[in-house]
């Protein structure tokens, strides 16, 4: 490598990767981001569809595990930061890699304020005055975003540790409810197999669409691969084991709540886990509210951590300004994090402006589409890699891609169209920001 190239690489990377994340850190990213606030409401959402709802869980869990296998396979080929961004770039070139990165990054800073708002919603259980004060709600949301943002800015090791602790803490109240269901539950409380009376396949499709969003984030451990110890082993293991962990927790928690809360009550409940926890006494619902706060805070911490990794990954591919790839003393991509935190904060403030709530909700749906599209492209990348050399893996990639396409189309044509517009809006940034420089090896590129 020439002296010039070495200097360019040093400028792009700033501080070298610290290999600060181990297996459990990767696992906590997958589990901590997937298990957010949605799990605390899903039993009520699924109740009108009866026991067929479990078939929906099985479909989405199976599809998600297929995607996890594909991501694990792709992660063996590269330990580059970026995950789906790196996979798309390797398989389909600069433009596809950049557009995947653009939409994927947008999904994180668009979703960031939504998670903060969910946290504030649970906080009102302990601070009722928040319910009538949008300004206080906004202040609490901003404090949470920037408080966790400071953890990520301090260093990826600290953010990874906080993520692991929050993931363990969030699982405690969920496991308590699971225990309540299987110890004190009654099968008489279970709903009918198909109370809606609809066609089995139609109801299955509805419940699958309702549950598939709960698995958004299964690719999380692939994104900071450049900072993972023994990434070729730990990233695939954490992706697959984390996805299986979440699938088991979701299905067991839904079953437990249905065993405790009568079907008629469950269908109208706005806090099914709290209703299930009432069996513990007056402190039960408070425990669940506190668990939900930890759960949402953990999901937000992981989201913030990854929101800084994504622009850095594009900079390392020399498709964005080099400054976005520089790290501070703690190994954190400082400018990338500040940019993401700033955009997320602006959206949070906008959410509390009169007349923008509906638009903000729509943006969240676009955020989900932008999370799913990189998974579809990743499946196509594995299909391209394995079609001639490993037909078994090609079939798995094809099935995973079909599931991802089903998930994307399930969001609705209108949301999909606007999500496409958001991604294509990155074209000007691609042509304006792409340097005319020579090719440079990424400092976090795997050898061999």
UniProtKB/TrEMBL annotation:
GO terms for cellular component: plasma membrane. It is found in: Cell membrane. GO terms for molecular function: transmembrane transporter activity. It holds the Pfam family AA_permease_2. Gene3D superfamilies: Amino acid/polyamine transporter I. Keywords: Cell membrane, Membrane, Transmembrane, Transmembrane helix. It is a multi-pass membrane protein. The chain crosses the membrane at residues 21-43, 49-71, 108-129, 135-156, 168-188, 200-218, 239-263, 283-306, 335-353, 359-380, 392-409, 415-433. InterPro entries: AA/rel_permease1, APC_superfamily. Its main location: membrane. Major component of the acid-resistance (AR) system allowing enteric pathogens to survive the acidic environment in the stomach. Exchanges extracellular arginine for its intracellular decarboxylation product agmatine (Agm) thereby expelling intracellular protons. Probably undergoes several conformational states in order to translocate the substrate across the membrane; keeps the substrate accessible to only 1 side of the membrane at a time by opening and closing 3 membrane-internal gates. Belongs to the amino acid-polyamine-organocation (APC) superfamily. Basic amino acid/polyamine antiporter (APA) (TC 2.A.3.2) family. This is Arginine/agmatine antiporter. It comes from Maricaulis maris (strain MCS10) (Caulobacter maris).
């Amino acid at each position: 490598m020439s002296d010039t190239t070495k200097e360019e690489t040093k400028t792009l990377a700033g501080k070298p990767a610290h290999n600060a994340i181990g297996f459990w850190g990767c696992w906590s990213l997958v589990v901590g981001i997937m298990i957010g606030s949605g799990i605390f409401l899903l039993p009520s959402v699924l109740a009108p569809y009866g026991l067929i709802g479990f078939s929906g869980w099985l479909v989405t869990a199976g599809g998600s595990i297929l995607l996890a296998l594909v991501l694990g396979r792709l992660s063996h080929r590269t330990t580059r930061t970026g995950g789906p961004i790196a996979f798309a770039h390797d398989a389909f070139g600069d433009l596809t890699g950049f557009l995947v990165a653009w939409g994927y990054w947008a999904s994180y800073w668009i979703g960031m304020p939504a998670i903060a708002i969910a946290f504030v919603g649970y906080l009102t259980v302990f601070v009722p005055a928040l319910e009538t004060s949008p300004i206080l709600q906004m202040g609490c949301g901003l404090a949470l975003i920037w408080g966790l943002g400071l953890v990520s800015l301090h260093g990826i090791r600290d953010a990874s540790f906080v993520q692991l602790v929050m993931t363990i803490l969030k699982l405690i109240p969920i496991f308590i409810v699971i225990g309540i269901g299987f110890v004190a539950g009654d099968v008489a409380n279970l709903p009918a197999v198909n109370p809606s009376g609809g066609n089995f396949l139609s109801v299955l499709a509805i419940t699958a669409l309702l549950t598939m969003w709960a698995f958004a984030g299964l690719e999380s451990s692939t994104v900071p691969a450049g900072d993972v110890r023994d990434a070729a082993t730990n990233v695939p293991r954490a992706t697959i084991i984390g996805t299986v962990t979440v699938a088991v927790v979701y299905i067991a928690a839904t079953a437990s709540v249905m065993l405790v809360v009568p079907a008629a009550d469950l269908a109208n409940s706005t806090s099914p886990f709290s209703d299930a926890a009432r069996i513990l006494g007056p402190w039960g619902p408070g425990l669940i509210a506190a668990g939900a706060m930890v759960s949402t805070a953990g999901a937000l911490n992981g989201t913030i951590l990854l929101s800084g990794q994504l622009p850095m990954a594009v900079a390392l591919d020399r498709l964005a300004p080099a400054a976005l790839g520089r790290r501070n003393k703690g190994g954190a991509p400082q400018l990338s994090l500040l940019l993401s935190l700033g955009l997320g904060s602006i959206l949070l403030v906008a959410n509390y402006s009169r007349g923008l709530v509906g638009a903000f909700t729509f943006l969240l749906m676009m955020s989900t589409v932008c999370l799913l599209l990189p998974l579809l492209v990743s499946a196509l990348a594995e299909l391209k890699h394995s079609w001639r050399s490993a037909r078994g893996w090609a079939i798995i990639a094809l099935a995973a891609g079909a599931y991802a396409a089903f998930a994307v189309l399930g969001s609705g044509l209108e949301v999909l169209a606007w999500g496409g517009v958001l991604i294509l809006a990155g074209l000007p940034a691609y042509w304006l920001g792409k340097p005319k420089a020579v090719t440079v090896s990424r400092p976090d590129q795997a050898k061999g």
